[in-house]
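As a representative case, the lines below give one protein's residues and fold tokens.
***
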Amino acid sequence: MMFNERIWTVFKQNWQHTLTYWSVFFSFGLSISFLGPTVLDLRCQTQSTLQEITCVFFAQQFFLLVGSSVGGLFKETQKCALSALFTCTLLISMVFAIVPLCHSLLLLAVALATGGLAMGIIDTIANFQLVKIYQKDSAVFLQVLHFFIGLGALVSPLIAEPFLSETNCVLGAANATSELRHLRKTLGRNTAHNWSHYHLLTEGIVVTQVAYAFWIMAIISLPVPLVVLALLHRERALSCCCRARSPRLLDQEGVDMKTWAAGPGEEEPKNLHTEGHGGLFSCCRNKPVHTLSPFSTGVHILGGLVVFMTDGIIGVYSVFVYSYAVDPPLALKHKTAGYLSSVFWAAITVGRLISVPMSCRVRPVHMLIGNLAGMVITTLLLLLLHTHGMFLFVGTFFLGLFLSSVFPCMLAYAEDTLDYQGCVTTFVVTCAGTGEMVLQVVVGSFMHRTGSYSFLLCTMVIASVGFILFCVLLLFRHMHR
């Protein structure tokens, strides 16, 4: 009860900042999942081929990774972080509004790359700021933060669905509606597929209403930068300079917050703000590389590798589970297999919601042990029961459930291990984005050579490696305690 009361007290002291970061991640979630269902209409809009339009996936994902790496440059002060969040959320709204006006593939790629860069910066700053504010209690609020990603990712396709073309949106094409629906579900789930056997017209009269979907999402996301702007006004930070040394948020809270945050029998958290934290290698800024603690380096590397594997599984599974399900030995109907990705993301969203109250009573390390062990067991059962279509749905749900809270728990655990130095946040976020992008390419290439049946084997191997790396991290911390 004391723990819950402490969390509630600290939340009341920082509720405006916390709600702002949560709303920012909802805007982030909107930007994650809109590209898959709308990519065929965007192909018509830019009058490009399927092979050419899929490059926008890479543009967005690559610059999201770049944004995650450079996001640490904007988190030195609370005011500078809010200024960066305002700029990035406004950019996302502008990208939604501009995408329907991009009739050139290059312009569309530039717009989505800009949106990806803003998403990456948001990812790093919001995670870091919540860890900085709540420290030992950050796991609860990180779970809520990542729940809003899932919520936005669920809302975005629902907005787009009524405006998607049922037939080919370039007049004169003879493709059947059923084929287009199958192709739409395949696109957005399997970016490594060979599209050369699909011949869709690139010239003709373009008939698509997808612009309305993007404009609706632009309107929905527009209040988010206004919320950040209101908090900037409250902090009197509109003329912020990132090098300013004004009083930080935690310094203003006084002794009461330190007392509640420490808890009985615990040391008070150290002041995080005596030094600013920069980019990916900010921990090396104030001392030579050779003087870095081997313990700190080991936690960075092992923690980053764990989320590299787990977030990589999320990317791989959401992309390739459809292709696996429609091929032998399961050979599910295309419409039935199309629900697998929705089940997976719904399980992730539900899992993050369930993890919020669990984080109040269960330590992040214990949640990580349960989630990673459950992930390995689920992938093993999926591999053993690979001929049972019904269990594929059940296993997909439980896999999403176990994967849902790994990233926020690992972030909280790593920061707690390093006494909230702050620099580990940028590294973990960057590793997560790298894993999601790299493992999709690796598994996609492996499936192309050996067949889609190797999908579950790859997933189980990645899950097992992630679990082994986490066990090494536990042993490493025990040896250096």
